[in-house]
Structure to design on (325 residues):
């Protein structure tokens, strides 16, 4: 007579090999392919939204900027005594500036809203796809409804901390620049410049990682998400910075190409707008890809963190079923 016996044994957990930068990019590509339908939908929605904002910005701001430029030229003539002073002109300039700032603020709010949607949707769906669970568009919208506040709060605190660090670093850079100028230390100036760029890349990587943590971990948000991100990134900071550098270079290249093409079409407004929209689509692709890659990087950091947590133990306690005659 055979009976099933539950035997309790200790087995040693073998640490899995850590993925390198290329490994993370390759894993992100595979997960992106698995989750392709949803990611393409998000990409199209985000790109169309930013394209419409670009068109609205062009149509709304161009007349205001043209009018403001004309009034400023007239004001310059007044100061030189070429034409008589007109108070109406001053009021018109103030009105144009206020209207310009108001429109830019509205566009900024809409841009941030689109970014929040795209980040929560992409990171949430990638996080689930990493565990072989593919979400539908409906599931994604439900997740956005429950998670959209955390990345906003986290971004606010991360921005404050980043701004404080950048301000402090700028002061230090200014001091070192004066010292290098006085003592003709050109090498020191270059070292400081390189260090400044490295710090910016590091802050951008940490900022992005904080956003990922705040979205995928329900109990993390604000300062708690920042603390959790720093904890998970220990030993992986360089890898995260390299990943961020790749996306900054890609985004920078797209922006430079767009600017060069637009300058060649200076008097062709609609052609410039078409080039700008093409650049927007390319930047949206880079942004969505960055969200996917940093979600995979989060899994990699979390896996390493959990392995460190059990390091030194004899094994993991598990239940194994075996048959005994």
């Amino acid at each position: 007579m055979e009976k099933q016996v539950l035997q309790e044994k200790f087995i040693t957990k073998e640490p899995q090999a850590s993925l390198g930068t290329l490994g993370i990019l390759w894993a992100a590509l595979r997960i992106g392919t698995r989750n392709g339908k949803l990611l393409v939908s998000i990409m199209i929605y985000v790109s169309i939204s930013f394209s419409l904002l670009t068109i609205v910005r062009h149509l709304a701001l161009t007349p205001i900027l043209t009018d403001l430029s004309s009034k400023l030229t007239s004001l310059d003539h007044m100061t030189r005594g070429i034409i008589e002073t007109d108070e109406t002109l001053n009021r018109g300039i103030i009105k144009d500036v206020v209207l310009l700032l108001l429109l830019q603020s509205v566009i900024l709010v809409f841009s941030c809203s689109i970014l929040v949607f795209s980040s929560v949707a992409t990171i949430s769906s990638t996080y689930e796809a990493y565990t072989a669970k593919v979400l539908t568009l409906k599931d994604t919208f439900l997740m956005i409804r429950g998670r959209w506040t955390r990345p906003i709060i986290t971004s606010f605190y991360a921005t404050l901390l980043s701004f404080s660090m950048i301000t402090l670093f700028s002061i230090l850079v200014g001091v070192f620049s004066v010292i290098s100028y006085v003592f003709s230390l050109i090498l020191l100036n270059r070292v400081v410049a390189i260090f400044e760029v490295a710090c910016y890349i590091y802050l951008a990587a940490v900022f992005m990682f904080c956003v990922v943590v705040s979205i995928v971990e329900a109990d993390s948000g604000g300062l708690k998400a920042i603390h959790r991100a720093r904890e998970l990134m220990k030993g992986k900071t360089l890898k995260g910075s390299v990943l961020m550098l790749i996306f900054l270079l890609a985004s920078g290249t797209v922006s430079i190409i767009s600017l060069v093409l637009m300058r060649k079409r200076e008097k062709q407004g609609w052609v410039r707008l078409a080039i700008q929209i093409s650049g927007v689509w390319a930047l949206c692709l880079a942004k969505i890809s960055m969200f996917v890659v940093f979600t995979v990087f989060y899994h990699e950091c979390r896996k390493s963190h959990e392995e460190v947590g059990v390091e030194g133990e004899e094994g993991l306690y598990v239940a194994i079923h075996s048959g005994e005659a």
